[in-house]
Amino acid sequence: MSEKILHVLGALALELTPGSSASRDALPQSEAGELGAAIARDLARFSPEAAALDLTTAGAHYDPVELLRPGWPIHRELDQLGARAPGGGSGGARIIAFGSHDGRLPGALSPSADYAGGPLRLVPWSLAGSADTVRDVGDACERDLMERGMAGADTALLAQEAFDLQVEHARYLTMHDLCALMAMQYDHAGLAPLWPVVETALLSPDRDAWLDAPPEPLLHYTDHEARIALLTPNAWRARNGESVADGGDRDDERLQRRFAHYEARQRQFAAVLRAHGVAVTFAHCQGDPVGEL
């Protein structure tokens, strides 16, 4: 019986200098291989057992939302392409780096132009091998990588020059570390109420999650999709305790503005969820919105 193959999933996180942007999001094969070798050296310095594992990476950088999607699609694509790469079963650890050919990356690895220009760019990597070794390396990464996982100075400089970036910090993160980092960023961006739903879709996609915290939109994640309640103005007023006072037209305008803000918040949440690869549907609710979602 063949030994079970497991994976450690992570990324080289490149924090860019404020105001800078990337002019190159993918590397040709030779440069991708050089960067892959540098990543492998760094990870082996951090956890020597990592040197016994296959490392698969892409010579490309992505926005966090492209990596943080249910099923980890970029990493899954790396693993599937890596499984077909020559040299498997030779007994030695491999470094498999996918670069561009004629300006195109293989499979579904091309970064999306829709999310270019963000301050944090991620080069994904995957370590694969025997279950015991992967488990030991994975435990070490989850325990210590966030605190101690700075990239080597040579690796940071290589990534900066290869991608034509201005890199302020370069460090390694597991996908769980990246989730924790994004939770903090969403908090700072005023999106903290939505993050538990995103996290459920990423880490426990078969579970349900609710956002039921007025005045925020009502949202139910179930069956791998997010259902957002569409409320009439009267239903919104009842749910949020809004009432028309004796302010006449001025009071009615105030309520209209608040309802418009609520609808804009719904659209914002839907856009964030879709960026993370979560399907979104809007449900017209006639009675009890919680019961209808």
Give a brief outline of the structure:
By secondary structure, this protein is α+β, with helices and mostly antiparallel strands. 42% of the residues lie in helices and 20% in strands. The strands form 2 sheets. It has a 5-stranded mixed beta sheet, with helices on both faces. Strands 6-7-8-9 form a 4-stranded mixed beta sheet.
Record keyword descriptors for this entry.
293 residues, 2 domains, 42% helix
How do the helices and strands follow one another from N- to C-terminus?
Answer: EHEHHEEHHEHHEEEHHEH
- The count of strands amounts to 9
Q: If you compute it from the alpha carbons, what radius of gyration comes out, rounded to the nearest whole angstrom?
A: 23 Å
Q: What would you call the structural class? A: alpha+beta
Overall body shape:
elongated
Q: Overall mean pLDDT score?
A: 90
Spatially, the strands of the biggest sheet line up as: 3-2-4-1-5
The helix content, as a percent range, equals 40-55%
Query: What is the number of helical segments per DSSP (H or I, 4+ residues)?
Result: 10
> Structurally, how many domains make up the residues?
2
First-last Cα distance = 47 Å
Sheet with the most strands, sense and barrel status: 5 strands, mixed
Q: In oligomeric terms, what are we looking at?
A: single chain
Strand composition percent: 15-25%
Low-pLDDT residue intervals, each spanning 5 or more residues: none
